[in-house]
Amino acid sequence: MLKPTPRGFTLIELMVALAVAGLLLMGAIPLVREWMMNMQVRNAAMSIAGGLEKARAEAVRRNRDVTFSLVWSTGASPASLTDDCTLSARSASWIISLEDPSGGCGGALLTGDASAADKPRLLARHAQGDGSPDVIVGVYDASCASATGETQVTFNSFGRAATSPAPMRCIVVRHPGSDTTHTLRVMLGTGGSVRTCDPAVTERDDPRTCIPT
């Protein structure tokens, strides 16, 4: 008895399969793009929150004022910070330093005796291009309703945010590429506490909400 000859795919079957795969891929591309934009927003918000917390911890550890600043290097790529930097309330790049870092963001980080180092005595830095090159940042008042021009927070030796100059209270991070991507906020409390929240979450018991408890 002859065994049946194995049958392959016909050209029409292959074309149908490729067409179906193409349609599925086209449907997935917007979802992947949306996910990538949301990840940029999350990366930027978590980076800023982490920088604020580190600045606060350094102030307590060093028993002196430490400043967290939002900065932008006008002549460099988003992936780096150089000495042409300026303070900017629209940037996700940041510097932790003992003095105002304007014009000195590219220097070496402080590793030894602070008294012997050159100003602005940098402690840490993060460039926006490292994980979130396309996000937009805005600085607002404590209610996140009115935009302000603050670019810095100075923590004292008790870990509290100094009131003069006025500190940043609400940093809003969003992506300009879509109206449906998440917007996240980094909130600074009067006592110096830092938290990240999602204004889209309306349940008061949800830890992600921005609604005060």
TrEMBL record:
Major subcellular site: membrane
Gene3D superfamilies registered for this protein in UniProt: minor pseudopilin epsh domain
Keywords: Cell inner membrane, Cell membrane, Membrane, Methylation, Transmembrane, Transmembrane helix
Source organism, top-level taxon: Bacteria
Entry protein name: Type II secretion system protein H
GO biological process: protein secretion by the type II secretion system
Source organism (scientific name): Sphaerotilus natans subsp. natans DSM 6575
Membrane topology recorded in Swiss-Prot or TrEMBL: Single-pass membrane protein
GO CC annotations, alphabetized: plasma membrane; type II protein secretion system complex
Residue span(s) of domain General secretion pathway GspH: 44-181
Family: Belongs to the GSP H family.
Subcellular location: Cell inner membrane
Transmembrane segments: 12-32
